[in-house]
Amino acid sequence: MTERARAGTDEPGALLDHLERLVMAESPSEDLALVRSCADVVADLVREFLGESPQRVDVEGRPHLLLRSGAERPVLLLAHLDTVWPAGTTAHWPFTVDGDWATGPGVFDMKAGLLQGLQAMRASRARDVDLLITSDEEIGSPTSRGLIEREARRARAVLVLEPSADGAPKTARKGVSMYRLQVHGRASHAGLEPEAGINALVELAAQVAVLEGLADPRAGTTVTPTVARAGSTANTVPAAAEVALDVRAWSAAEQDRVDTALRSLTPTLSGATLDLLGGVNRPPLEVAASASLMGLAARCAEELGFALPAGRAVGGASDGNFTAGLGVPTLDGLGAVGHGAHAPGERVLVPALAERAALVTRLLVVLSAADEQTEVHT
Fold first, then answer.
1. Which residue in 11, 183, 232, 301 could disulfide with 241, CB within 3.0 to 4.6 Å?
2. pLDDT, tens digit, for every residue of 37-86?
């Protein structure tokens, strides 16, 4: 790929104009029409910043944007354009700048980070940086996971532009598993012959007690029953019941332990049966995957004249979990500094936009200066 274009300007006002344009392009994950429209806006921004058009990769009707450098072992910048905010949110909560803060739906998670990534690619002029922007991260990346993993397998390192509440990179993220436990019993009249039924709700209650016992607070493993359903009418012994289950763990070993235990559940009521649906959604981003890049980021920040907060371990997951799960060195949380992800009033610290872009720029310069055949070791 030719040298990255020097189009546009790095003036703060210009960056805020771009950010307003991007935030006002609503992109709720489930609204494909709006997601496609926002992808068009992002593609235009890529051209404006870098002078090149990204490839549009459609998977099951959903657009993802990919810009490859042509390098055999590139550095991969990873971002997403979708948000959790429903269509129409900007009508009552538009992009606004008030002093040092900018607010608007998706500004923190993670449209400001996406723009900082474009700014860093342009400023670094690196020849071996690939960019992948997906559109379904907020719903578990069902269509983009294969694309993320394919591009990550080619990469020497992955930098994830997710936000940070206090400027600290994410050096560990819990893995996420998602399940539905279905219980099958037998219906009968609750007044005339309750003994003829097999109460799926009673069986579910017994299983929930077992599920909670699979958690390990010392290891940081949580097993949380969330949404439950049972029965059909108030005077009928329930023939069916189910519960959704959210499992989070710091290590793949813990994920495997819980998964094995769930698949070994047995009914307590004679005649009842169990079905387990789901499994591991995202593997953990373990500290070993981020350690070398975190050290490099701290040195880069020092060179730029500021101290980078120590890396943080968090329970939430991102697409960086996928890349780390492949053994690719991954550093997350390099996007915007601010507060309130997924909450009304989410905001980013405007003075930090340039500093964070400079940090990613410096990381790209240092990583690109290394021999392309040199791996970043975990």
1. 183
2. 999 999 999 999 999 999 999 999 999 999 999 999 999 999 999 999 99
169 half-sphere exposure, CB direction, 13 A CA radius: 30
Beta-bridge mates of residue 15: none
Q: What is the pTM for the complete model shown? A: 0.88
Predicted confidence band of residue 371 (pLDDT cuts 50, 70, 90): low
Dihedrals phi, psi of 178, to nearest 5 degrees = -130, 130
- Burial status of residue 207 (CB atoms within 10 A of its CB: 0-12, 13-18, 19 or more): buried
In the chain, the amino acid numbered 51 is: G
CATH 3.40.630.10 is right for the domain spanning 12-174+284-369: yes
State the DSSP code for 110. Answer: I
For 43, the token pair is 């593609």
Considering only CA atoms, give the Rg of the chain: 23
Burial class (CB in 10 A: 0-12, 13-18, 19+), 68: middle
Determine the pLDDT at residue 375. Answer: 58
- Token code pair at residue 232: 């059909």
3-state secondary structure of 99: coil
Q: Which residues contact 214 (CB under 8 A, 6 or more apart)?
A: 221, 223, 258, 261, 262
- Rounded CA-CA distance 61/32 in Å is 8
Residue 257 near residue 244, CB atoms below 8 Å: no
Distance CA 53, CA 76 (A): 17
End-to-end CA distance of the chain: 28
The first and second tokens of residue 91, run together, are: 């009508």
**Topology of domain 175-282, CATH:** Alpha-Beta Plaits (3.30.70)
Dist. CA 378–CA 70, nearest whole Å: 24
**176 three-state secondary structure:** strand
Strand (E) positions, the chain? 55-59, 62-67, 75-80, 96-98, 101-103, 129-134, 157-160, 170-173, 175-184, 222-230, 240-249, 273-282, 312-314, 330-331, 338-339, 347-349
How would DSSP label each residue in 297-362? HHHHHHHHTSPPPPPEEES---THHHHHHTT--EEB--S-BEE-TTSTT-EEEHHHHHHHHHHHHH
Segments making up each domain of the chain, as ranges: 12-174+284-369, 175-282
